[in-house]
Design goal:
single chain, 282 residues, alpha/beta, Rossmann fold, Arc Repressor Mutant, subunit A, 5-stranded parallel β-sheet, 4-stranded antiparallel β-sheet, 12 helices, 48% helix, elongated
């Protein structure tokens, strides 16, 4: 192969690699002046920008293979909160930044608790917004789990990092992204995790004084675990400190009883035959 051909091939490979590493951003906004300034700056940085004047479906966002999404709540309209929650819940690997007009503390707190990585108020400088986007993308990349990470069986629950979900036998627990992140974080530790540590690891920034988000999400997570696996307890509270993960059979339930409950759940039910769990309550 000639030197010219080799040089052309290497240049093409380099161009392909840069394209693959280029950050992809979508912005849902209708402010032409804001979009023009942002577009010029992102073009200079070599980012791929998709300017959207209205929300797109979750599948549409997936097809864009985005690193980050910036959205204006005013554009989303009355369904904006539901849209924000669905995007953050279905796409946990996507950095989501709300950049909108003046808002109340309650609105900003609500958006962050629904899963937004950051909330910025217009008017804002394009350079500041870009720095916030980059910081959110870095946090997501640090928290990325390998696609082929193996499943973990704890008690009756199988934790699947590759699917961002947990299962009790064949049934999904239907965990939200935050619930799964808390479950996975707790299950990977052999010690008590402080509420502040859980918040920083999952939400990505320091917990405000008096914030009860961790307790709220742990309570919801416990409810789903209890419904799916009633014979076991998984998350234990250390009052005033935080939470510890340790699968344990509930008091009064032996391993034999737990196996009987499991067999009863799997066995076909005949209305004319007594249920196996009747022997556990007699």
């Amino acid at each position: 192969m000639s030197a010219d051909a080799t040089g052309a091939r290497l240049a093409a490979q380099g161009s392909t690699a840069r394209a693959q590493n280029r950050l992809r951003l979508a912005v849902i906004d209708r402010d032409p002046g804001f979009m023009q300034v942002l577009s010029n700056r992102l073009h200079a940085l070599g980012w791929d920008l998709r300017a959207l004047s209205s929300p797109v479906t979750i599948d549409g966002l997936v097809a864009m293979r985005l690193n980050a999404l910036v959205l204006d709540m005013a554009v989303l309209g009355p369904t904006g909160w539901d849209y924000l929650e669905r995007v953050c819940g279905r796409l946990p690997g996507l950095a989501v930044i709300v950049c909108t007009g003046p808002s109340s503390v309650a609105q900003r707190v609500r958006g962050l608790r629904l899963g937004a990585d950051a909330w910025m108020t217009k008017p804002c400088h394009a350079e500041e917004l870009i720095c916030v986007i980059e910081a959110a993308i870095r946090r997501h990349r640090r928290n990325d789990m390998p696609d082929l990470q193996s499943a973990t069986l704890v008690g009756e629950i199988t934790i699947r990092p590759d699917l961002y979900q947990a299962y009790a036998r064949e049934s999904s627990l239907e965990l939200t992204a935050r619930e799964f992140e808390i479950l996975h974080l707790l299950s990977q530790s052999d010690r008590v995790l402080r509420r502040e540590e859980i918040y920083e690891r999952v939400w990505g920034y320091a917990m405000a004084h008096g914030d009860r988000s961790v307790d709220v999400f742990v309570r919801k997570l416990r409810q789903k675990l209890r419904q799916a696996s009633p014979a076991w307890s998984y998350i234990h509270t250390h009052f005033g400190v935080g939470y510890r993960f340790a699968p344990e059979l509930e008091a009064g339930i032996t391993e034999t009883h737990a196996e009987t409950i499991l067999a009863n759940d799997r066995a076909p039910f005949d209305a004319d035959e007594p249920r196996l769990d009747a022997t556990l309550t007699g």
